[in-house]
Design a protein that fits this description.
Radius of gyration: 29 Å
Oligomer: single chain
Organism: Drosophila arizonae (Fruit fly)
Order of helices and strands: HEEEEEEEEHH
Shape: elongated
Largest sheet: 4 strands, antiparallel
Structural class: alpha+beta
Protein name: Transmembrane emp24 domain-containing protein 2
Subcellular location: Endomembrane system; Membrane
Helix content: 25-40%
Family: Belongs to the EMP24/GP25L family.
Number of helices: 3
Strand order of the largest sheet: 1-8-3-6
Distance between the termini: 106 Å
Pfam families: EMP24_GP25L
C-alpha cells in the first residue's frame, strides 16, 4: 500500500503535453530542480512541415545545456548541477507558414537525498530512503510505459483522422464522378437531339 501511494505521488510529475507552436513562435516551459535531481525530457513532432523544430534547454543561469536547429524527436536526461529553474524551449521561428504540433514530457525526479534529509522532504509519503529508491526506479519504468502509450495514442488519433479524411474524399468522388458523367450524358443527348432535329416549314 505504501509503494502504491508513493507511485501515485510521483506520477503527476510526468504528465504529457500536446501543443501547437505557430510559425515565427517560440514556446518555453519551466520547472524547478535541485542539485542531483534527475531531469528527463522527451518530445516528438507529430504534424507540420518536415516535422522538425529547434530545441533549447537552459540552466538556471541561462547556460545553454542543449541546442539543436532541427529535431524531429529526442530524449534527454541529465542531473541538475544547480538549484533553480530549468527552461525548455521549442523554436519554430524558421518556419514561414507551417505550425508544428508536438507532444513532450518534462519530468523532474527528486534525488534520494531529498527523502533522506527531513529538512528537504516536504511530505511523509515515504519514511525509508531505500524504499523510496525502489519506488523511484519502479515509477520511472511506469513513466516510460505511460510515455509510449500517450505517443501511440497520439499517432493512432492522427492516423484515424487521416483515414477518415481519405474515406470522405473517396465517397465524395464516387458520388461526384457518376453524377458528372450522368450530367454530361444528358447534355450530349439533348445536344444531339437538337442537332438532328428537322424543322418543318408549314
Amino acid at each position: 500500500m505504501l509503494i502504491f501511494i508513493g507511485i501515485l505521488v510521483l506520477l503527476p510529475l510526468a504528465r504529457g503535453f500536446l501543443i501547437t507552436v505557430d510559425a515565427h513562435e517560440t514556446a518555453c516551459f519551466f520547472d524547478r530542480a535541485q542539485v542531483k535531481d534527475k531531469v528527463a525530457i522527451s518530445f516528438e513532432v507529430m504534424e507540420g512541415g518536415f516535422k522538425d523544430i529547434a530545441v533549447e534547454i537552459l540552466a538556471p543561469d541561462n547556460e545553454m545545456l542543449y541546442h539543436a536547429e532541427a529535431e524531429t524527436s529526442g530524449k534527454y536526461t541529465f542531473a541538475a548541477n544547480k538549484d533553480g529553474q530549468y527552461t525548455l524551449c521549442f523554436d519554430n521561428s524558421k518556419s514561414t507558414l507551417t505550425p508544428k504540433v508536438l507532444m513532450f514530457h518534462y519530468t523532474v525526479v527528486k534525488d534520494i537525498g531529498h527523502y533522506i534529509d527531513p529538512h528537504k522532504r516536504t511530505d511523509d509519503v515515504v519514511e525509508q530512503s531505500v524504499l523510496q529508491d525502489y519506488i523511484n526506479e519502479l515509477s520511472s519504468q511506469i513513466i516510460v510505459v505511460q510515455h509510449e502509450q500517450e505517443y501511440m495514442h497520439a499517432r493512432y488519433k492522427g492516423h484515424l483522422e487521416l483515414s477518415a479524411n481519405v474515406h470522405f474524399r473517396l465517397v465524395a468522388w464516387s458520388i461526384f464522378g457518376p453524377s458528372l458523367l450522368l450530367g454530361m450524358t444528358v447534355i450530349e443527348i439533348y445536344y444531339l437531339k437538337r442537332f438532328f432535329e428537322v424543322k418543318r416549314v408549314v
